[in-house]
Amino acid sequence: MKNLTRRDFNGLMMKGAGSAALMSVTSFACAMGPNQDKKKLGIALVGLGSYSTYQLAPALQDTQHCYLAGIVTGTPDKEKIWADKYNIPKANIYNYQNFDDIAKNDSIDAVYVVLPNSMHADFCIRAAKAGKHVICEKPMAVSVEECDAIINACKAAGVKLGMGYRLHSEPYTQQVKQFVKEKTFGDIKFISAEAAYRSTGNPDQWRLNKKLSGGGALMNMGVYAVQSTIYGTGENPISVSAQEFSTRPEYFKDTDETIMAQLEFPSGAVANISTSHNFNANSMYVSGTNGWVQLQPANNYGPLSGKTSNGDILEFPHESQQKLQMDDFAKHVLLGEPNKAPGEMGKRDMMIVEAIYESIAKGGQKVNLNFAPGFGFGG
Ligand code: NAD
To answer: What pTM was estimated for this model as a whole?
Structure first.
């Protein structure tokens, strides 16, 4: 009977999440009124690599509150291909040199920076100076100092800043956050989070070049595992201790291959994360005093999958995470809805990344962190 009640409760929660999403769309439609119903956020993608090509541009064909208005590319051949495919006017196509002219283009409201990590800060700051709202891909930059520079530039220009953390708009992740908030599984005591894939491609790719990437697996995939521990506890960590493993130094010449880290949280919860460019892993397990919830996969493009100690299988309809994420940012800009992944979230994660590298450099010594409660949390 107890289990049945819990199942019913969770079922209601799941339906609740769905109807909350529906209500927010409905209330958006109602709130827009007759004069605003044509307004959508015009987004320009900067960097037309694989993420822009295969995820963001297709998702922008399905978004309700934003659309692909322009492109910025360093590869002239891509200009015509993208212009033809997505009906982009010549006036909305820029290269890295004339990018700053975008300031004069009223049909572009926001710039989405999808370049190698070391180029994020430069282009986010230039976009802000051009008066455009900014979406920055993860990891935010290659140092906390650069994250601050992006945040300050956006503040100074009075533009909005969001991170490309797509999981904050994703229903399984929302469900975990809700379980934690409602203490469905009691007090959270332990999280295990893994985000990794095996890299075997071109050893000269930018992700394996520290100057362009800022770091290896930790910067690329580890941020997902760090995030899992934060929404799995609802807290920011107070310390990290970390270890690095290297088994293919001839391939990973310049960047970290595998990192494991332990995090402590103010409530006493502890977490173990693993990230790697040498093996595949993609899951999170959240254990509380009354049960557990698990997502596997937990951080790919979906559909994700999850279950709980109550015997429930989590099931949500699949939608493009990128579509949901960009619509959420557009609603933040257009309607003042909460920013689900603010710039401070990117900075907080970079502070944790830097603390993990510091711990490794000190032979695994514990490094303390001192975040204000809720720092970097999205709305
Ligand atoms: P990619 O290698 O496929 O594309 C990179 C783009 O940057 C290319 O268009 C390339 O021409 C351009 N570029 C400009 N200068 C370059 C240089 N010096 N070296 C290499 N490329 C250069 O990379 P991607 O997978 O599209 O990743 C781009 C960004 O998006 C990264 O910050 C990455 O972390 C992020 N990303 C996020 C997700 C996500 O799920 N949120 C997924 C993939 C990538």
So the answer is: 0.92
